[in-house]
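User: Modeling request: complex.
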Amino acid sequence: MEFTVRQIAAMLGGDVHGNGDATINMLAKIQDAQPGQIAFLSNPKYENFIYSTQASAVIVSRDFQPKKDVQAALILVDNPYSSFTVLLEEYHKLISYQKTGVEDPSYIGKGSEVGKNSYRGAFSYIGNNVKIGDNVKIYPHVFVGDNVVIGNNVILHPNVKLYAGTRIGNNCVLHAGAVLGSDGFGFAPQEDGTYKTIPQLGNVMIEDDVVIGANTVIDCATFYGDSTIIRKGVKLDNLIQIAHNVEVGKNTVIAAQTGISGSTKIGEHCMLAGQVGIAGHLVIANNTSVGAQAGISKSVKEEGQQLLGYPVFDIKEYFRSYAVFKRLPDLQYRLRELEKKVSQSAEVGS
Amino acid sequence: MEFTVRQIAAMLGGDVHGNGDATINMLAKIQDAQPGQIAFLSNPKYENFIYSTQASAVIVSRDFQPKKDVQAALILVDNPYSSFTVLLEEYHKLISYQKTGVEDPSYIGKGSEVGKNSYRGAFSYIGNNVKIGDNVKIYPHVFVGDNVVIGNNVILHPNVKLYAGTRIGNNCVLHAGAVLGSDGFGFAPQEDGTYKTIPQLGNVMIEDDVVIGANTVIDCATFYGDSTIIRKGVKLDNLIQIAHNVEVGKNTVIAAQTGISGSTKIGEHCMLAGQVGIAGHLVIANNTSVGAQAGISKSVKEEGQQLLGYPVFDIKEYFRSYAVFKRLPDLQYRLRELEKKVSQSAEVGS
Amino acid sequence: MEFTVRQIAAMLGGDVHGNGDATINMLAKIQDAQPGQIAFLSNPKYENFIYSTQASAVIVSRDFQPKKDVQAALILVDNPYSSFTVLLEEYHKLISYQKTGVEDPSYIGKGSEVGKNSYRGAFSYIGNNVKIGDNVKIYPHVFVGDNVVIGNNVILHPNVKLYAGTRIGNNCVLHAGAVLGSDGFGFAPQEDGTYKTIPQLGNVMIEDDVVIGANTVIDCATFYGDSTIIRKGVKLDNLIQIAHNVEVGKNTVIAAQTGISGSTKIGEHCMLAGQVGIAGHLVIANNTSVGAQAGISKSVKEEGQQLLGYPVFDIKEYFRSYAVFKRLPDLQYRLRELEKKVSQSAEVGS
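Assistant: Request completed. Predicted assembly structure:
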């Protein structure tokens, strides 16, 4: 993982000024960079750093005019920030996918298959009849139950738990401690006041390009053959609760600690902020945006709304009402005064 | 796990019309069923499916009168839905309890005993002086600390963590990542602004027939000899926080992401919805029902109330107040108009 | 772990009445204590128990005057409660730090070092180039990623997960299932409606004397070289979400299920109650106190405030407004009545 300045410039379609043979092994901020590292200069207020940086190379704009001597090699590009982002991404891929092979001891059951260029960390567990694609990274303490199916280019971080029958698409990342397929919370009240467990026999299905945060939980569907479904491109943050039979629509983004109750269907391109709660058996329209800590108790039928409150209504109206809420003691006082006045004037008038 | 239609009919006390020798190995919905599967017909709006289903058998009501030819064998019962539920439960038991034996490598400490017909998955860990009953299923990556006691017919899903001294009754199910016995959150403020940890030396005690959701946390009691207690029949959903010295009464049901602060005692047959918060050192009366995201800061003394808001009050009154809250800007405007009028009429009158 | 009454008295600076040679192996409450155990009497309403207790010794105040015979040996001290707390702490240290050695199988990568007097439980995983100090307890199923650095006297309870590059100071306790270093939740919206993952290349840095609760998640910083920082003496409860690039100031205490969004900086000596939510990119002043379930959407600049509501304002004002909120239907009714009166009197007057 070492490149010359010239190699990096070629990767970015940029031109080199200075020492193109200097070797780079790490990315850094311009104010912190050390020899062997590459930084970028985009915001003019950081310009001073370029004259003192220890970086071996700095990515700059094609129209950058140095006012003093610069020691670092320069790579001239159209947009230094987006070029640096490209490097970040390449670096990220390199480190994410560099683990390969099987560490001992790890466990794999009968009839299970793992594709090529994969990693299985020590103490990872794969049950029976599991099918896993190529380029899948299974970190230590991951549990993959019987009959699970996983696509290509998937990362299961340490301690991800997939109950039997879970299905995962391609290019998904599941963070540490995420649980998929735990029992839905279904209990039938009995006459003696106890509750009988309703067997939860469905599974969880995750489509392609999904990210699932640390310690997030997704319950299985109730019925055999049904799935709790996370559609293509969905991003779920940490510590989220997704109950049984929920469906989350394409490219919807949900922030941490939000909870979706059973059988609710969230539309596409929705944005749910943190700590939102949504009741069961609802349908939320596409492009709905829900503010932090809001609670939804009825279906949202009109697309593209921005909602807040418990229960939710339009976010701007919420803030208008809340502004008055903060003055309620004053309002109450004024109402009382007015009542006195009117009552007095009535007496006077009588 | 394959039965004839006749065997299933006998199990349900039903009568067979058609091929009683057909073999069944799976349950399915009538619209999806394949050969070898059994479905049910309860809701008349699904009746059309019975004439086209691929199912080998369908459970129907004794008074069902087919309008066309039915290929599937029929099992006639009094209540098709509840008969199907019986099958679901039997199936669920079969798959839940089919794992037995010990997978390698697993760890068991000194002086520990595990009853018969048990399962210990690979990478499961059992400490010293642990007593585990019969028919207990310990999935991979489960941690059972020293001196833990577990009854019969318990399922510990992957990665359940039981700190030293935890006690679990019979017929309990703990889902993946549940933590029992972590330190209560107790710190004594010091004069220099730091906090000193108050040692947490009690344990967690779970009675019979309790279900605990994935990634839920139950802290141990503070004092040696005391317990945080979950009574018989309680059902806890995922990602719940139960603090030190809490007691949850019999047959209470708590939905996901709710948090109970230290030393609070929840009554029997309560229902707490999701994301509810309850302050510490309170007593909540039996049969209390708390709506989602509500916050309780004082004890609830009267039984059978339905509560909402922060802090909570009667749920119907909450909704009435909230209806006015949404109109507060209008109320404020009307009050201002009235003030003007009254002020003018006072001027006119003067 | 057995001491004579005389040894314990010496430890506490107390005087012995009765059998100083009796041996003590456990702490207990006076009403529950058994032979071999030591209890304390502080609250006079428990005095009766001292005449019947089975305890081998009881810690009492120097001015305690028994009204009947006492079987137990007495240790006379100035403050029985605080003396007992000292014993609790000693006991706690003993049991917390008694595990040593390496259980099989456990995994340790290349170039990693573990200090003396440490414990590595079975199925614990330590990656490459990890530096771990002295007296560190690593319980089963802990994952320590590559290049992690850990100080002295640290306890990692079962299943703690430290992503690569995490740094932990001295005297820290991390509870079961805590995740440090998972990816920050950062996605760049694309023109086609999908989201592209922004690589998260920073780490998590925990200073000395920090406690982190079970299943709490702390995301890594976005930029390489940046850290999400938890300062010295911070105490975090269970199931908390700390997003990327957050900094939590010295000696701040945060209760369960609270969430802090990305890049927010929490001051020193703050107290956040449970289920609080704080938006991203804010600065919260020192000594801020936030009530349960509150939501903060703007920076808090003035120190020492007590806040509640969503969005938050002064807690006393919140309760005053909320008191009126509960009477809003009545207020609305009174306003309507007043409007009628004024309108009538206007008509009368015209």
